[in-house]
Amino acid sequence: MKLHPHTPFGRLSDLVQSRTGNFALMSAIVAPVFIGLAGAAVDFNSLISHKSNLQDIADASALASAKEASLNGWSAKAASAIVEGYLEAHKGSGINGTVDAKVEVDSVRRQVKVTLAEDNHPYFVAGYFVGTPQIVVSSTARTNNSSNICVIGLDESDSGTVSLQTNAVISAPKCAVYANSDSTTGLTATGNSNLIAQLTCTAGGYAGVPKNYNQQLPLTDCPVVTDPLVSRPAPPVGACKEKDAVYSHYIGTLQPGVYCGGLTIKASSEVTLKPGVYVIKDGPLVIESSSVVDAKGVGFYFTGANASFMFESSSQVDIEAPVSGPLAGLVAFQDRESPEADFVITSNKARKLIGTIYLPNGNLIVAANNKVADGSAYTAIVVRRLQLSKAPNLVLNTNYGETLVPVPDGVGPQDSAPRLIY
Q1: Half-sphere exposure (Cβ direction) of 211: Cα atoms closer than 13 Å
Q2: Which whole-number Å values give the CA distances from 37 to 30, 51, 79, 110, 227, in the listed order?
Q3: What 8-state DSSP symbol labels residue 85?
Q4: Which whole number is the average pLDDT over 25-34?
Q5: How far apart are CA 64 and CA 42, in angstroms?
Q6: Do 272 and 297 contact (CB within 8 A), yes or no?
Q7: Among 296, 343, 300, 302, which residue's Cα sits nearest to residue 319?
Q8: Would you list the domain boundaries of the chain?
Q9: What three-state secondary structure class fits 204?
Q10: Given its phi and psi angles, is residue 208 left (phi above 0), alpha (psi -120 to 50 degrees) or beta?
């Protein structure tokens, strides 16, 4: 049957058989699909770009807010203000919708977590798939160091690299105490002892209960703190000034120099040490009970066998490290090649120790029954081991501006540089 060209069926037949009409029809059907796919691709690329931009803002604001929080006592208010400032600065560039920020400050771990949630951006297609909020990113920044470091126990394997027993106390509320030992008891506080610090950190584990740490348990698995004085050059050691020097019932002054065989100041002596470097070689520095030693501008260098110090129970010892010279800032410096030795304070009158005690192979043993170093503007301790027993209260002040004694790099105030953690 032949269709008449002017009937409806005839016109349909012509359209189907026409190549031009067929192309137009297919184009009309397919074009919106391709346009939609192209739009979706652009849309999802935009979503990915916005998420990347928001992540960059989260990272930058987390680093900045951790820095600010660490300088302001880990203030959540200070950290939040920094994050809000970043969001305001990026409106219209990295931020295209409404963004809510959540800022979590953890003063124990010394970190700030920033979570940003973006919503209400007019995505054409992507909005149907991503839900609400459309983008959520987070970033955490942590500072490794306290703003001040006052104790580093260098030994990396032994139990009790930093150890408190009986009624011993460390009072370091504005600085950090580090134990480098990876032992499960690299840091110990037992009995009625109490370690009070802004931050207590151990590379391994610890022994003790919350009351031993002022209810703020130490952080574990901390990174080892490199010896900050490892590159400090030793002072020159010249010829012996005196050999086996013993001063008994002596009232007067002593001069710096090399004391071979050690130096003993017997009971009931009153001695002023003139400023300079006192090299204690192949023997101990002993300050006996009931003696008084005033050492301003003095640094002790210990080298050779049996080179150590003993400040006996009733002795009065006031030491202020040199302001300049080879031992600037150092109360005591042990030769790195010397054998392991015990440096002992049993004095109840060792109230002024201004500077840093550096004993890379030494065990600083404090077994007094009174405050120690509390009259110092600052005291820092970098030793192989720090061990407290009996009832001393080792007070580690951080009043660096109250003295001209310099603080060696690596102890005292630190540039608290935060890093991102994942």
Answers
A1: 6
A2: 11, 21, 43, 47, 61
A3: H
A4: 51
A5: 33
A6: no
A7: 296
A8: 35-143, 148-414
A9: coil
A10: left
Structure-derived torsion over alpha carbons of residues 28, 32, 33, 38, reported in degrees to the nearest 10: 140
Residue 15 pLDDT more than 50? no
Q: pLDDT (tens digit, 9 = 90+) per residue, 163-184?
A: 999 999 999 999 999 999 999 9
Percent of the chain with pLDDT over 90: 60
State the Cα–Cα distance between residues 174 and 216, nearest whole angstrom: 14
Query: 171, 198 in Cβ contact below 8 A?
Result: no
**Structure tokens, 195:** 């370690």
Q: What is the pTM of this model?
A: 0.70
32 vs 294: which has the higher pLDDT? 294
Are 379 and 393 in contact by the 8 Å Cβ rule? The answer is: no
The rounded Cα 160 to chain-centroid distance in angstroms is 20
Cβ–Cβ under 8 Å, residues 332 and 359: yes
Exposure of 96 by Cβ count < 10 A (0-12 exposed, 13-18 middle, 19+ buried)?
A: buried
Strands (E), 312-376: 316-320, 330-334, 341-345, 349-366, 371-372
